[in-house]
Amino acid sequence: MMPPAGRIAVQAAVLLLLAAAAAAIHRTRVEEAPRIVLQAEETRPAADGVTTPTQTAAATPGGETGGAPAAEAGEGISVVGVVTPERALELYNTDYVQFVDARNPADYAAGHLPGAVNLPFGEFGRGKPGNLDELIPEAMTIVYCEGGECESSRLVAQQLVMLGFVDVKIIEVGYPGWVGAGLPVESGDSSTGANR
Fold it and tell me: How many CA atoms lie within 13 A of 68 on its CB side?
């Protein structure tokens, strides 16, 4: 028969092993949020005089350069494109694009980009946002907020990339930059999703 101190030592060792196994399982289940690297889109005149967009490479800490928007640039790093308001409108008018307004519902109701879906970052903290079902992960998704110091568009873009959205871009100057450029806006509180 084992002395009581020996049994306690064995039980403690078994508990430590179980705790270590549980911690290892938990680490494999918890997905770390990717770090977002912004990639500016610049325009260059083509031979025929028509301005066309080109991607400006964004360097990552490992020295790689970014590829397509929302592409993986390295482990835990995703590249998200940055577009001007004018380019965003051009994409909306010519491609299958959906706008995501990361501002609060009151600001959204006061005015938003055509067809935008309101998806504030805070909604992700409460589980799956209801408006997320209005979006198509395979479609180009352009996110905006108040611009300037506002980080909501980046945070929402990060969540969308984590959820498998494949082509995510940000209007860095946000809604004020869009309005300042004299581009069309809508008002009201109903989301309508993608433009087609």
Answer: 7
